[in-house]
Write a structure and sequence with these properties.
Layout: H1 2-17, E1 40-48, E2 53-55, E3 61-63, H2 64-77, E4 82-90, E5 94-95, E6 99-100, E7 104-110, E8 113-120, H3 130-139, E9 148-154, H4 177-187, E10 196-200, H5 207-213, E11 219-222, H6 240-243, H7 249-267, E12 272-278, H8 283-300, E13 308-312, E14 328-333, E15 350-354
Parallel strand pairs: 1-4, 1-9, 9-10, 10-11
Antiparallel strand pairs: 2-3, 4-7, 5-6, 7-8, 11-12, 12-14, 13-15
Length: about 350
């Protein structure tokens, strides 16, 4: 009898671990929550399947991905004229050490209200973001007139080559910038571009990354430097109906970048760099350095991690070309210590250097 009872418990736990909690019928648009279509559409992908533990100045242990998730939900709740998609990718766990649990959590908000919540498997499909793309298109509201569209990615540095081990739960699966670009392509309706893409990651303000995402963005905010898990502050995105009333996304992106920079410089002693890229304006420079940067990436693929490092592209003469600063707004403060504390500016572009 005891074994039979235990088996019943196992069955119940297994069913719970595999269940979703939709707040509205799947695939069915919500009811008459509002007669007005969303003016803003925001999508967040928050990567948590890795080492995101850090300690704040008071010594308290925190998880960067959980902090980002809480900020994203606050943004969703405080935007009465937006639809918001939040995807939280978490480490795979097992119920009773046996039954795998779903390792993706999805939340859909419209007009400040949580309308759907589901758990999903992240390893379903041929492409990296197949589950997220499917959920996005299942729940998104009709976009006529088309809203201002924003995309946010929170995580570690997105690799430009290799990419194995990015997900702790899937050590053999690779993830690179090109996978993100593919996901954006499949999310964007009718090949339209996001008005703003925010990469809250380390070292992704590079010519290669910006060029890969350029077909899907008008403006990109990224850091060419190390953020040390100090993610971008999302507070400026609360109440877009107030802060973005005039629809000037490029101007709003610069205000956001400035506020983010100011907050990061309060907490980080190492260098802080936040850059805003006007995608159309940087195309000339990206085309000029494309072949050189691609050659560098191919060279680095055979090197050990200890033999390469990041550097300001301006420190390598091959990248110092006319138009390097065109379309780039840079907020920079040097490290408080070390050999680079005297470095007074940054180009806004990060490159690779092979150590001798």
């Amino acid at each position: 009898m005891l074994l039979a009872g235990f088996g019943g418990v196992v069955l119940v736990l297994f069913l719970v671990s595999c269940s979703s909690i939709p707040l509205m019928q799947r695939g069915t648009p919500p009811g008459e929550e509002s007669a007005l279509p969303p003016r803003y559409s925001m999508a967040f992908i928050i990567h948590g399947d890795g080492d995101y533990l850090y300690h704040d100045p008071q010594g308290n242990a925190r998880r960067a991905d959980q902090e980002a998730f809480l900020e994203a939900t606050t943004v969703a709740e405080r935007n009465p004229q937006a639809q918001v998609f939040i995807f939280h990718e978490i480490r795979r766990k097992h119920a009773l050490l046996i039954f795998p649990r779903r390792d993706g959590k999805f939340y859909y908000y419209r007009h400040g209200q949580l309308l759907a919540q589901e758990s999903y498997w992240r390893d379903q499909g041929q492409s990296r973001f197949d589950p997220e793309v499917t959920l996005y298109h299942r729940f998104r509201a009709g976009e006529q007139p088309q809203p201002l569209r924003l995309f946010f990615y929170f995580g570690h540095e997105i690799p430009e080559f290799g990419g194995a081990g990015y997900d702790a739960s899937y050590s053999q699966r690779t993830f690179t910038v090109l996978d993100l670009a593919d996901g954006l392509k499949r999310i964007a309706p009718d090949s339209s571009r996001f008005d703003l893409i925010v990469l809250s990651t380390c070292f992704n303000g590079t010519p290669y990354t910006i060029a890969a995402l350029a077909p899907y963005a008008r403006t990109i905010v990224a850091s060419p430097d190390n953020l040390h898990l100090s993610y971008f502050d999302l507070q400026p995105f609360e109440r877009l109906d107030v802060g973005l009333r005039d629809g000037d996304m490029a101007g709003f992106a610069k205000i956001f970048a400035r506020q983010t920079f100011d907050r990061l410089t309060e907490d980080i002693q190492t260098a802080v760099t936040v850059a805003v890229y006007d995608v159309d304006s940087v195309q000339g420079y990206l085309h000029a350095v494309d072949s050189v940067y691609y050659h560098t990436l191919n060279t680095l693929k055979g090197q050990t991690p200890g033999s390469i490092k990041h550097c300001d592209c301006a420190d390598d003469p091959v990248y110092v070309l006319p138009g390097m600063s065109e379309g780039v707004e840079v907020f920079y403060r040097p490290s408080r210590f070390g050999r680079l504390k005297q470095k007074q500016n940054h180009s806004g572009w990060e490159c690779w250097m092979l150590l001798n």
